[in-house]
């Protein structure tokens, strides 16, 4: 007989404890597997073995956004990996084919890798859950419970679980160091930029300090240079199949700001600041209601963010282009990090991350303290009591205490 299987998290909290991507918080999934009869409230279930694991399912289909290419292009490609280790929660006694069970509660803790195990796939920090428009790329996590019932029957039950990454928060000090870069196209004019920080979220302002300077060795030629306009743009670069033989790239320009200059290049150089706001996605509909999201995918205020998976990679660049006459145009691309949370949300998370790190210091990954498991077999004296039933005159009746 098939079993009814459910996975529940700790009371009044999420499955996910800690912050994936931040090793000090020991990110983990806590909960318990509940097994009950599925047909007939009190018919025992034969259970031989119970296992649980966290599974990552990735798919890419670059042609999906075009109706014609969707049918004529390459088919959808997917991959499935186990994140971390699979846990054995229950095995019946040796010599028995199965245990006849009325109710079973099996607590578990699945530790999410945090990048200290080398380059093995199952020990890397898992990328965040994400679904791009038209499902061109997708990362989905599921808790998979395997229940072996006797020698021949094995059933798998999947439960989608959203997973976010917290190592790109714009409030971390590593992202608040200024970045600078200088390029030239023909040794006549150099384009230099300076970024005060390089991690941004939805609606965060991005400001770039820009300097166009003439080459002192070519002063006479540089005097004839006229700066026509300077363009600042944010580009999203998606690489499909980055680790394969034929990676393909797609660049989307998601925001642009142009400053008209129309001036000669001064001897001291031309200095300006350009800025724009990173676009956000409104989660509310026309009536101001936030609709329920898809199970397994967090509701982000951005369409995509910086992430690296097995089948795809998303990177962001600031593109600065200076268009001039009497000199070649100069284009500079500076990588930036896009976080799914804005500056204020990142600040609010910092205190919770510190507390999670303190709590994690009391957890032993090799021997986590788990509640005792509860297994009620059919031969137990008060087995029916656990299902809210009792025997009255040889018949099963609801238990009234």
Automatic annotation (TrEMBL):
Alphabetized SMART domains for the sequence: Arrestin_C
Organism: Cytospora chrysosperma
Protein name (Swiss-Prot/TrEMBL): Arrestin C-terminal-like domain-containing protein
GO terms for cellular component: division septum
Entries under InterPro entries matching the protein: Arrestin_C-like, Cytokinesis_Signaling_Reg, Ig_E-set
Segments traversing the membrane: none
Record domain Arrestin C-terminal-like: where: 185-343
GO biological process: division septum assembly
Protein origin, superkingdom: Eukaryota
């Amino acid at each position: 007989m098939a079993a009814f299987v459910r996975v529940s998290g700790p009371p009044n909290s999420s499955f996910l404890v800690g912050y994936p991507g931040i090793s000090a918080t020991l990110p983990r999934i806590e909960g318990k597997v509940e097994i009950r009869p599925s047909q007939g409230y009190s018919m025992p279930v034969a259970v031989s073995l119970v296992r649980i694991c966290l599974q990552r399912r990735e798919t890419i289909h670059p042609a999906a956004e075009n109706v014609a290419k969707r049918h004529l292009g390459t088919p959808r490609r997917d991959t499935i990996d186990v994140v971390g280790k699979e846990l054995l929660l229950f095995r019946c006694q040796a010599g028995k084919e199965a245990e006849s069970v009325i109710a079973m509660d099996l607590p578990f803790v699945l530790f999410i890798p945090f990048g200290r195990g080398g380059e093995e796939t199952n020990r890397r920090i898992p990328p965040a859950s994400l679904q791009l428009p038209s499902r061109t790329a997708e990362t989905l996590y599921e808790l998979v419970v395997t229940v072996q019932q006797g020698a021949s029957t094995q059933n798998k039950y999947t439960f989608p679980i959203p997973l976010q990454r917290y190592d790109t928060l714009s409030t971390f000090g590593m992202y608040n160091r200024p970045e600078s870069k200088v390029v030239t196209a023909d040794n006549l004019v150099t384009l230099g930029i300076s970024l005060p920080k390089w991690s941004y979220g939805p609606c965060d302002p991005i400001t770039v300090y820009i300097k166009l300077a003439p080459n002192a060795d070519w002063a006479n030629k540089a005097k004839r240079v006229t700066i026509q306009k300077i363009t600042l743009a944010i580009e999203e670069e998606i690489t499909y199949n980055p680790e394969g033989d034929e990676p393909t790239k797609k660049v989307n320009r998601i925001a642009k700001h142009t400053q008209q200059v129309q001036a000669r290049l001064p001897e001291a150089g031309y200095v300006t600041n350009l800025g724009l706001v990173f676009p956000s996605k409104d989660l509310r509909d026309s009536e101001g209601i936030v609709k329920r999201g898809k199970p397994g995918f967090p509701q982000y205020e951005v369409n995509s963010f910086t992430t690296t998976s097995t089948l795809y990679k998303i990177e962001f660049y600031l593109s600065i282009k200076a268009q001039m006459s009497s000199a070649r145009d100069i284009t500079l691309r500076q990588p930036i990090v896009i976080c799914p949370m804005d500056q204020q949300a990142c600040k609010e998370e910092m205190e919770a991350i510190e507390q999670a790190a303190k709590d994690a210091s009391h957890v032993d990954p090799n021997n986590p303290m788990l509640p005792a498991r509860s297994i009620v077999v059919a031969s137990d004296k008060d087995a029916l009591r656990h299902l809210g039933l009792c025997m009255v005159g040889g018949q099963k009746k609801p238990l009234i205490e």
